[in-house]
User: What shape does this take?
Amino acid sequence: MANMMGPIYHLYSWYLWRQIKDNSMPNHVGIILDGNRRYAKQRSQEADFGHTMGAERIDEVLDWCFDAGINVVTIYAFSTENFSRKKEEVQHIMEIAQDRFETVARSEVVHRHQVRVRAIGQLSLLPPKLLAAISEAEEVTAGYDKFQLNVAIGYGGRTEIVDAVKRIAEKVQTGDINPMAISDEIIEQHLYTAGIADPELIIRTSGEERLSGFLLWQSAYSELYFADVYWPEIRKIDFWRALRTFQRRERRFGN
Assistant: This one.
């Protein structure tokens, strides 16, 4: 049976790709990377093991996105609420993130695909070494415009909206914005994701069916897909199924 799983898997993956490859793909996909700790617990390991394995999955999933022609990917890596976890766990996640951003700056794949990298969130909450790694990754990819990877880290959707309101209020005080002129467009211009199209599809792993504060404003008309696998074990067929589901839905935007 084990020997048959490889051929069967590849056959099914090919079958799914044949179904989706010629249909419309989302331009922007958001991904909530959930289930690292439960993945570790299921294997009688500490949480650090799950976070390490989860980080290793990101590159492969990005390759799937490139293959599908998805131009923008936003991953939810660490929320503001996650800072309340044990100090040792948070420190390990920060170290993983630092390593990943340092890797991105030197990544042959990133430069070959011309991926612009950005971090979004309350970056002032992050440790200095991680901030330096983020700055380098953003700087060396700033000229790219073929693909974009946004990493939501130290991110909270409500906080993002509050921060936008504060910046708008400051401009109202200085007379740069007329309060009666405030619109959806004005608010969007002051979000962390200013200049980036809203995600058409948001995928969450681990079977949980909620956004947990991810892109609250931007997800108003996003299609949602919840995969019953933990993030470290996501497979290409899980991702292809999400795209197939997206393609089969009728997007009416409230009409």
Remarks:
- The first helix runs from residue 2 to 20.
- Residues 28 and 215 are 12 Å apart (CA to CA).
- The domain at 25-156+199-248 is CATH 3.40.1180.10 (Undecaprenyl pyrophosphate synthetase).
